[in-house]
Structures are given as C-alpha cells and as structure tokens.
Design goal:
With 111 residues, this protein is mostly beta strands. The protein is built from 1 helix and 8 strands; from the N terminus they run αββββββββ. The strands form 2 sheets. Strands 1-2-5-8-7-6 form a 6-stranded antiparallel β-barrel. It is globular, with a radius of gyration of 15 Å.
C-alpha cells in the first residue's frame, strides 16, 4: 500500500467531500480532512464595530485534487461553508505526492 492510499483510507473514514474551484470554475471534488486552527496569532482583526474572528482551517486533501500553488482565487466548498485558500503545499514521501496541505480562511459573504 502506498502512502497516498493510506492517507486516502484515513480521509474516507474521518474526512468529508469537498469541491475545489478556481476563478469561478469547478476543478474537481474529492476527500479532505478539515480541522480548525485555534493556536495561531492574529485570529482577530479590528473592524469598525470591534474585533472580528478570522476563521482558519487546516485542510489535508487527497493527492488527486488539482490544487495549484499559483496565484489566483481558489476556493474550497464543503458542508460547513466556503473557504479561500491562503497557501498550499505538497506533502510527499520520496517522489510520491501523498496529500495536499492547505491553510484555508473562512469566506465572508457580502450582505
């Protein structure tokens, strides 16, 4: 069993289905494990009405998803909502891509 297959087995049990969009175009869907990040500084941003929490999430997504670290507006959609991709990295074992590791930020909808 490869490392990517082992990760996919864990994601199928503990993860959820997400869809990946870039500049308004759906690129694909797959499994990912999403976990909130609570221990980072700068989670609260000043606004005119006080402090606003900036929701950040760690995303570990299957290798088959077409994540791209190039600039552009990339969104992850799941049951909880929509997230903007802040940064993304490849996690590899040797030459094999095991999964994508991304930091996501909650998307604020305009009212």
């Amino acid at each position: 069993m490869s490392f990517a297959a082992a990760f996919l087995a864990v994601a199928s049990r503990h993860g959820q289905r997400i869809s990946l969009e870039r500049d308004g175009e759906v690129l694909g869907s797959g499994l990912a494990i999403l976990r909130p990040i609570f221990d980072r500084k700068g989670q609260f941003l000043p606004t005119d009405l006080g402090l606003e929490r900036r929701e950040q999430v760690l995303c570990m997504a299957e290798a088959a998803l077409p994540f791209d670290p190039a600039p552009g507006r990339t969104l992850v959609r799941c049951e909880e909502g929509t997230y903007r991709v802040v940064n993304v990295r490849r996690v590899t074992a040797g030459l094999e891509l095991v999964y994508w590791r991304a930091i996501l930020e909650g998307e604020v909808e305009d009212l």
